[in-house]
Specification:
2 domains, 255 residues, Nucleotidyltransferase, domain 5, 5 strands, 9 helices, alpha/beta
């Protein structure tokens, strides 16, 4: 309580843990479990591990922590960055570029830093409503530093990114001798691992409206995959959770 204005608050105000009825030691155990599991954890697994009263509580905790996995001050990708789109979930219609709307596939755009002479750096992922020029250019502007080399396929939606201060390295895949996963290895590797992770850890039961939260978790894990000390991941996630405002179950369920 403030001695001058008598305003009351708690040490958890303005953090991920605000107004929680779950003990903080359970929250810390959840953070430790999440950061120490290479492939993540499902809500059911967290519920059983911590002995929580309901699946909804575990599910909400995970989503609140996923929100904290995004550092608002993180640096943009630099250097050579591969960019491409992939489709998540729904029925496979066989049409990669223009899936049937009834298939309910979510469009995810991916950016991956390419290291020389080999290897991948950081990634960024985002669900977009369509593969139109506006959505693609907005994603590139938000995630890639100006002056970087953006490596793409021959899709014409990337044709004007040079106007935004980027250099485009276009690789036409149609009729090319090399397969797409060889010409653009970064985005194809990330897309493959992402789908495997969603199917394995979460059994493919991720709703499109909450997909961005899972993409944030995947990026958090991928970008820290080379960390030698898991305790640092635990510390880092707690550090960001303290700086992230809490959201309600209703906010999360409504996307």
């Amino acid at each position: 309580m403030c001695h001058s204005c008598r305003y009351q608050c708690t040490v958890t105000s303005g953090t991920t843990f605000e107004k929680t009825r779950t003990p903080l030691n359970s929250w810390f155990a959840a953070v430790w479990y999440i950061t120490n599991q290479k492939n993540g954890v499902s809500a059911l697994g967290l519920k059983d591990l911590l002995g929580l009263g309901s699946y909804q509580t575990a599910w909400t905790m995970l989503h609140k922590l996923r929100k904290a996995m995004v550092d608002p001050e993180r640096e943009k990708l630099t250097g050579i960055v591969e960019v491409d789109e992939t489709y998540i979930g729904g029925r496979d219609t066989g049409n990669v570029r223009a899936p049937n709307p009834e298939s309910k596939k979510a469009i995810v755009i991916i950016a991956v830093e390419i290291l020389e002479p080999k290897g991948f750096g950081r990634v960024r992922l985002k669900r977009i409503d369509s593969t139109s020029k506006n959505y693609v250019e907005q994603f590139i502007s938000e995630t890639i530093a100006s002056g970087s080399v953006v490596r793409t396929d021959g899709n014409p939606v990337y044709g004007s990114i040079y106007e935004k201060g980027y250099t485009r390295d276009k690789i036409v895949l149609l009729g090319a001798a090399e397969a797409a996963h060889i010409s653009l290895p970064g985005v194809h590797r990330v897309a493959s691992l992402l789908k495997r992770w969603l199917l394995g850890t979460h059994q493919g039961s991720v709703k499109s409206i909450q997909l961005d939260a899972y993409l944030d978790e995947y990026a958090f894990r991928f970008n820290r995959r080379k960390s030698r000390f898991r305790g640092l991941l635990f510390y880092r996630l707690l550090e960001m959770a303290v700086a992230t405002k809490s959201v309600t179950y209703k906010d999360i369920s409504n996307g």
